Every structure is written in C-alpha cells, then in structure tokens.
Amino acid sequence: MLRTEGVVKVFPISGGRSFTALDNVSIHCPEAQLTILRGRSGSGKTTLMNILSALDMPTKGKVYFNGRDIVRMDEHSRAKLRRHEIGYVFQSVALIPMMTAYENVEYALRLARTKGDRRERVTECLRMVGLEKRMNHMPQEMSGGEQQRVAIARAIAHKPKVIFADEPTAELDTGTGLQVVKIFRELCENEKITVIMTTHDNGLMELGDRVYQLEDGVIVNG
C-alpha cells in the first residue's frame, strides 16, 4: 500500500546550516496491516509520518501510495488524496468540544463531501469502536480512551484506505492504550484498512505486523 525509496528530509536552520531529519529511509507498509514506526522523540518518526501521509514532501527520494508516486503529484492531487483516501488520528484527539460524538464524526463526512446516508455511516463507525450508546455525549463527558475511540470513528468515517495515527496512546494508561491498538488491528482485519502508527511504547510492539525503529533519522531495525 505504501513504500518509500531512499527518502531524505533536510530542514534549513539558522546560519545557513541544515538538519537532516531523515536519511535514506526505505520502508514498506503492506495493505491491511498495522505498521508501527518506533523511536524516541526527535528520531524522525513524525517527519516520516508526515511524508507518508502527503502532508510534507521529502527533499529527495520516492513515496508510493497504492502505486502512485505522491512526490510527483501536484498539490491539488495530494489534497484530494488526503481528503478521500487518508484518515488521521492525533495524540491530542482534537475533537470539537461543542459537538457530540455523533456530530464530530458526521462533520468529518461533511468535510470529505461524502454522499449517501450519513446517519447510517456515523452510527456504523461508532458501533465499530464500541460507542454506539455514547454518540450523544460531549467530549468532556467521556474518558480519554473514549475520546480517542471517537477520533478513530471520525478517521474511518469516509472509508479511507490508510489511517495514520501519531502517538495515539501517549496520553492513555497502558490498558486503555492496548484497547485502542486492538481496535486498529480489528480495522485491518475486518475493514482491510492499512494502519500506520507512531509510538515509543515498547509494550505495543508485539501488536504490529511490521515494526520499524528509527534513530536519528535512520532505520536501524525493520
């Protein structure tokens, strides 16, 4: 589903110097599997995630999304890719506090300009994450784990091919974090969604189909 070839990302810094965040990174993320990008803060995993999800472009190298080289796409095509084929789950959850769980998920469908019965799809997505009985609750009325499950329902609502989850368990306790990752595994197995997740939690490694470890912008294990 996703692969990179020799990806390099260099950021300019003050004084005419530069910082190499990624150095010759080549990975393969199979379809309908959970790929984990592991590494400490500053290892380059979030930079790699941004490039894989077409939010940023590499300085050098190739990135293939379902056979298409997204580096060669124009910005309009990349925006269309992000809107229709990609879902995002963030560490901070980023739910809209004035909206119920149902409204947060339905809003994602409106942004994606999804046609058809939105109510049926929203209900289906909340049922997948075990929150069909909490759909009318506001985010502040829910636990951190429940909020993250709403965020997952929102991410899958428009039926993306790939979900990118950046440290989705960082603010959760171990048991709740495991529940969230198990939902990702179920989405891979039952919905055939490809999931790419960053984490520094060693306890989650065994749940991944494929694990890549980054150190100082280099793949050291994978």
Keywords:
Rossmann fold; five-stranded antiparallel β-sheet; globular; alpha/beta; 222 residues
Detailed description of the structure:
This protein is α/β, with parallel strands linked by helices. It has a single domain (2-221), classed as 3-Layer(aba) Sandwich (Rossmann fold), CATH 3.40.50. Helix content is 32%, strand content 27%. It contains six helices and eleven strands. It has helices at 45-52, 75-85, 101-111, 118-128, 144-156, 174-191; strands spanning 2-12, 18-25, 28-29, 34-38, 60-65, 68-69, 86-90, 162-166, 194-199, 210-215, 218-221. A six-stranded mixed β-sheet has the order 7-8-9-4-10-11, with helices on both faces. Strands 1, 2, 3, 5 and 6 form a five-stranded antiparallel β-sheet that branches. A hairpin with a 5-residue loop joins strand 1 and strand 2 (18-25). The protein is globular, with a radius of gyration of 17 Å.
